[in-house]
Amino acid sequence: MKKMYCTPSGLARASHRFGMRTHSGIHSKAHTTRNKVRFSPLGFPIDQVMQRAITALMDFWTVTNRVHIVVDRPRVKWKVPWTEFYKINFDGAMFKEEDRAGIGVIIRDSQGLALALLSQVIPLPLTVVDLETLAAVKAFEFTFDLSLGQVILEGDSETVINSLNDNSPSLAPFGLLIQGINNYANLFQCISFLHVHREENNVAHNLARHACHVTGFSVWMEDVPSHIFATY
To answer: RNase H type-1 domain spans which residues (predicted)?
Structure first.
């Protein structure tokens, strides 16, 4: 499966072009004003040059500070998998003040109905990527335990998803975990790894956050907990 990326924004290019036009307009204005002073009998006195320059500069700052280039990104929603496929979303959350972390997993069918959910608390990993990798491993194990054949694992960590889609050995600290998933991937009829936006991963994220209230782990079958229902 092809990896999904955010559409690049044209904000920087738009800002650059706007800036060039603005500076061009200032230079043109200055050139015109200079010619008025030089060639027109109605030019302002020389002792007003500094004051007029300061006023013009303040006007420029006022105008540019009012200009906002807004690029609206369409609201992204979770998408159901193809018929006979299941989507498994996973995420992690850190509770640094408690030296713990949470893992959340939700499995849904092609109608968008929840088949199983998991919330687990674990010791705090060293990095966010380590946590996201552990969440991917738990999602993989949870899915395998339910004997699902055709699955799509979705997460919002681009680093983890890219590593899962890369068949070459990884020298990263989490590389052995990634390799473990890939080694057992052939146990499924079909398995794909897909990167998604955070908005498409809200339920898994809320399950990960809920882990701070869990001792060990909690599993729900075909029932969405009320505290995450608003994002489902």
So the answer is: 89-211
